[in-house]
Specification:
Elements: E1 2-9, E2 13-19, E3 25-32, H1 37-48, E4 56-63, H2 67-74, E5 78-79, H3 82-93, E6 99-103, E7 108-114, E8 117-124, H4 132-141, H5 149-153, H6 167-179, H7 184-203, E9 213-216, H8 223-233, E10 237-238, H9 246-262, E11 278-284, E12 293-299, E13 302-307
Helix pairs in contact: 1-2, 3-9, 6-7, 7-8
């Protein structure tokens, strides 16, 4: 079978898809990056090819904060930023889409599209409030699985007022409400509402939100967040079939476009261990006052990339 492969490497997760030439997804995989993008990519590729025979990769694309690392590991043909990858996938899922909401593990973004072309975008990479990792942490603190937050919040009849401007204040508010004896479902409903307000205040201020609106990223599985977006934006929120691997799907689509444009055979290395001397080390970026904590990746002593940037300047 002829396939394209797309790889989206973030600080929290690594997503991989195998895509048919007709752009439908044949197979998808979500694994934790765990601070080791080289291992997550190599093990992920071995896993997604497990049990498969006679697959010919026509093109490979990478995206996400670790896209450069993934490209060096795999021999990818296309390396694109996540705005482009998510926008391309959104248009493929719904050709007339106008607005894309995306909440990932460590950042959130909004993309504006007109006639299938990205015209504008906004990203929030500094504040953790509203990200998947923040929701994951709060679910763990409340002794529940993050995927159950939405259904639990649905039971609420009197949502708590939770500060959503800052992750620290939001968590402090939640603890205070627990100490006051508030019901878990009311706390969670208040959390969903506040995180959506935070997203809208940070990313949508002064912007015209035009439908159709697509919501993608792992957090799109949270029905409480979806419900809050519908209420705040006063429009339907569409969850695409591949909502949790849209970046990887977009990377695969871009790889297909590159193959058709250039006609060049793919440089994809395939399964197995990567060659060369790979190692990683923790670094603090001094590029700006955010001082992001990074995991830098080196190949044969040369730095090829890093993950963990919170501000986009690293």
């Amino acid at each position: 079978m002829e396939m394209y492969i797309g790889i989206d490497v973030g600080s929290i997760s690594t997503d991989i898809v195998l895509m048919h030439p007709n752009k439908s997804i044949y197979k998808k995989l979500y694994i934790r990056t765990n601070g080791d993008p080289v291992n997550s990519v190599t093990s992920g590729i071995n896993t997604i090819f497990s049990g498969e025979r006679d697959i010919e990769i026509l093109g490979a694309g990478t995206t996400g904060s670790g896209r450069g690392i993934a490209a060096a590991v795999t021999g990818a043909d296309v390396v694109k930023n996540e705005i482009t990858a998510h926008g391309v996938a959104a248009v493929e899922a719904m050709p007339d889409v106008r607005t894309v909401l995306e909440i990932g593990g460590q950042d959130s973004k909004i993309i504006f599209i007109e006639d299938g072309i990205i015209t504008d975008f906004n990203m929030n990479t500094v504040c953790a409030a509203g990200t998947g990792s923040f929701l994951d942490r709060q679910a763990g603190r409340l002794g529940m699985e993050v995927q159950n937050i939405g259904e639990e919040a649905k039971k609420s009849t009197s949502p708590c007022s939770i500060a959503g401007r800052c992750a620290v204040f939001a968590e402090s508010d939640m603890i205070h409400k627990q100490q006051e004896g508030a019901k878990t479902e009311d706390i969670l409903a208040g959390l969903c509402d506040s995180l959506v307000r935070n997203f809208i205040n940070n990313l949508c201020s002064g912007k015209n939100i035009e439908p159709p609106v697509i919501f993608q990223g792992g957090v799109a599985a949270n029905s409480g967040i979806v419900r809050a977006f519908k209420r705040e934006l006063e429009t339907d929120i569409i969850i695409p079939p591949y909502y949790n691997v849209m970046g990887a799907w977009g990377a695969a689509i871009l790889a297909k476009e590159n193959r058709e444009k250039t006609g060049k055979e793919s440089l994809f290395k395939g399964k197995g261990k990567t060659s060369g001397d790979w190692n990683s080390q923790s670094e603090i970026c001094s590029g700006c006052e955010n001082r992001c904590a990074l995991t830098a990746i080196y190949l044969d002593g040369n730095k090829i990339g890093s993950i963990g940037s919170r501000c986009g300047n690293c």
